[in-house]
């Protein structure tokens, strides 16, 4: 759906109604720093020091780290990977705003991706409710209910996570949904049924875990076989990627955990759904799990704004696969400057077993006693390699260097190298020499890469023209002063000319707020430049009138200087032969005199 089909009335309503502080606060923790200025860690890139600014009055955001900026629509586009139109429709629906279209456009004639996504969500919500009913109310679900009860889950927990049971009859679900007027074609695309046998349910005779998006809507399922089970069956099945669900971007339990993660600035990454549920039942409600994938960059971006300056806890199995997953997760988190601790569970094979055997207090204590990742890795390397041989020590050091490489602080690197020396009785000089030799090539490559990258915003040239227009964008009361003295043609800076055009359009249409201006500006670099400049605090209201006056004088003087230089060139090249020639030269000299007076009246640049 093209963004142009949505009426300006709807766009204005979305911008006026949606609270940008509340919206951004769903993705990163914000703290007030006087007035309606809010700061937090950027949800677009990992950081520990808050450089992400949200202006609640002007309703825009800007990150001084990655330079992204804009209004609430561009924020949702970036975070949810939506088109402009889909972002508006999503925000409108959340605020109960009816979406109106222009030029006679009828959305029914061209269903957008977001419409199909909503239909899939409706389907999965309904299916989850049926599975939950089967678990709680039918004889078929008794075996699954007994299993979760024996594992220590309370009725409240089962209800909270909407656990369910998929019937053993693989044709039941298809018949049920067809009876609810879902077409066979739509069901075939839903991911709920076999591709080879379209009427056969993908999940059957399994304990069902609904997977929720961050808004608490069911978008997919995970299914577990119920013991005792046929060993030929896969223990766990997860939905594949769907229009409403991407494994790499989704975390099980996140919708339940996000508030606690924000408040505690901590998160527990688990290996399975039951682990998450057990942690939550024990009051450790900041636990989540990946869904059949390793921890990804998308997962880290999803949570980094909430836990910056806090702690990431890893609670994976102690077997070989679990240790490998822990190692990869440590490196990924450290590359994003996140502190990592490892939970080494004792007294049970998983959190649910510990909760059942020893109670919530025991599991809580084990989380509190989690060890730093550097300590965990040194201990693990000591078990993995023979420390009584030079070869074993060298291999352990080389593997530990990969961890040190991922650290973002030189102090941290030095401290961890000292830990390595003490643990394995190594000479610091030799360890540092080996580490430096190994990392020099990496550092040179990193410098070359960064030198070759073009920083965002460098395409925009900040001169007096653009400075004046950004100033009136910061204080729109001054725009009438500026437009009474200058037109679009007076500006030579392309970025300034584009911004003047947007200001003039908004002014003429009487939708004259900074959020409207940012929304009309289709140059992303210019938007980021505007939000960054205003967020810097340079354009205080009491200074804007002076900046506007200086800008008008600067542009007028430049224009007069250009005219004067052309005139001087003509005078210089003029040849007097007749009296008529002399008269024309005198006219040129008089014109120069008038230009000189006008330039002088403007004062110095």
Keywords:
single chain, 605 residues, alpha+beta, five-stranded antiparallel β-sheet, five-stranded mixed β-sheet, 14 strands, globular
The overall average pLDDT, rounded, is: 85
Regarding quaternary structure, how should these chains be classified? single chain
Distance between the termini: 49 Å
Question: What fraction strand?
Answer: 5-15%
Structural class per helix/strand content?
Answer: alpha+beta
Q: Tell me, briefly, the overall form.
A: globular
Radius of gyration: 32 Å
Q: Order of strands side by side in the largest beta sheet?
A: 1-2-3-4-5
Strand tally = 14
Compute the number of helices: 26
Helix content: 40-55%
Low-confidence stretches: 441-458
Biggest sheet features: 5 strands, antiparallel
Question: What would you say this structure looks like, in words?
Answer:
- This protein is α+β, with helices and mostly antiparallel strands.
- Helix content is 55%, strand content 9%.
- The protein is built from 26 helices and 14 strands.
- The protein has helices at 8-17, 20-25, 72-80, 84-95, 113-137, 142-150, 155-160, 172-179, 184-188, 254-264, 273-281, 297-307, 320-335, 351-358, 360-368, 373-384, 390-406, 410-424, 428-452, 464-474, 479-483, 494-508, 514-520, 524-535, 541-573, 579-602, and strands at residues 30-32, 37-40, 52-55, 60-63, 69-70, 164-166, 206-212, 218-225, 236-238, 266-270, 287-289, 311-315, 339-342, 371-372.
- The strands form 3 sheets. The chain has a 5-stranded antiparallel β-sheet with strand order 1-2-3-4-5, sandwiched between helices.
- Helix 10 (254-264) crosses helix 12, helix 16 (373-384) packs antiparallel against helix 17 and helix 16 (373-384) runs parallel beside helix 18 (410-424).
- The relative contact order is 0.07.
């Amino acid at each position: 759906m093209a963004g142009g089909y949505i009426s300006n009335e709807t766009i204005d309503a979305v911008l006026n109604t949606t609270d940008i502080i509340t919206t951004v606060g769903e993705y990163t923790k914000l703290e007030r720093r006087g007035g309606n200025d809010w700061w937090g860690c950027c949800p677009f890139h990992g950081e520990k020091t808050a450089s992400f600014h949200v202006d609640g009055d002007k309703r825009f955001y800007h990150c001084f780290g990655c330079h992204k900026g804009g209004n609430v629509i561009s924020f949702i586009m970036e975070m949810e990977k939506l088109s402009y139109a889909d972002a508006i429709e999503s925000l409108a629906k959340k605020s109960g705003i009816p979406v109106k279209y222009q030029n006679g456009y009828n959305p029914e004639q061209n269903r957008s991706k977001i419409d199909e996504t909503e239909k899939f969500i409706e389907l999965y919500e309904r299916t989850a409710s049926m599975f939950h009913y089967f678990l709680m109310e039918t004889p078929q679900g008794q075996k699954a209910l007994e299993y979760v009860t024996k594992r220590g889950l309370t009725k409240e927990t089962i209800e909270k996570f909407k656990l369910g049971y998929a019937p053993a009859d693989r044709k039941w679900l298809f018949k049920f949904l067809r009876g609810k007027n879902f077409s066979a074609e739509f069901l075939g695309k839903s991911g709920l049924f076999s591709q080879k046998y379209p009427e056969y349910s993908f999940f059957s005779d399994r304990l069902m875990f609904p997977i929720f998006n961050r808004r608490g809507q069911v978008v997919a399922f995970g299914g577990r076989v119920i013991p005792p089970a046929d060993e030929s069956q896969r223990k766990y099945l997860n939905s594949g990627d769907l229009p409403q669900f991407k494994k790499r971007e989704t975390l099980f339990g996140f919708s339940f955990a996000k508030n606690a993660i924000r408040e505690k600035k901590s998160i527990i990454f688990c290996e399975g759904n039951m682990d998450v549920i057990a942690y939550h039942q024990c009051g450790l409600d900041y636990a989540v799990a990946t869904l059949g994938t390793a921890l990804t960059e998308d997962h880290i971006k999803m949570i980094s704004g909430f836990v910056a300056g806090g702690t990431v806890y890893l609670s994976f199995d102690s077997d070989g696969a679990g240790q490998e997953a822990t190692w990869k997760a440590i490196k990924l988190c450290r590359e994003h400057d996140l502190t990592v601790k490892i939970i080494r569970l004792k007294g049970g094979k998983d959190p649910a077993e510990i909760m059942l055997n020893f109670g919530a207090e025991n599991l809580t204590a084990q989380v509190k006693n989690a060890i730093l990742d550097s300590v965990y890795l040194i201990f693990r390397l000591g078990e993995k390699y023979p420390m009584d041989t030079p070869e074993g020590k060298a291999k352990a050091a080389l593997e530990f260097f990969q961890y040190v490489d991922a650290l973002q602080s030189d102090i941290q690197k030095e401290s961890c190298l000292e830990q390595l020396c003490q643990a394995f009785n190594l000479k610091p000089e030799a360890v540092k020499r080996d580490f430096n030799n190994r990392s020099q090539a990496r550092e040179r490559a990193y410098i070359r890469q960064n030198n070759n990258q073009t920083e965002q915003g460098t395409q925009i040239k900040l001169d007096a023209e653009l400075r004046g227009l950004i100033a009136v964008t910061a204080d729109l009361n001054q725009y009438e002063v500026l437009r009474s003295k200058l037109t679009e043609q007076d500006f030579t800076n392309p970025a300034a000319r584009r911004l003047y055009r947007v200001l003039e359009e908004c002014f003429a249409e009487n939708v004259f707020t900074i959020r409207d201006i940012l929304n009309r500006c289709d140059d992303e670099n210019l938007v980021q430049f505007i939000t960054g400049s205003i967020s810097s605090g340079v354009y205080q209201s009491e200074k804007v009138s002076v900046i506007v006056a200086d800008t008008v004088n600067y542009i007028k003087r430049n224009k007069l200087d250009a005219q004067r230089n052309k005139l001087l060139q003509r005078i210089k090249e003029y040849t007097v032969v007749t009296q008529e020639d002399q008269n024309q030269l005198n006219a040129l000299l008089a014109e120069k005199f008038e230009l000189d007076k006008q330039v002088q009246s403007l004062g110095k640049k």
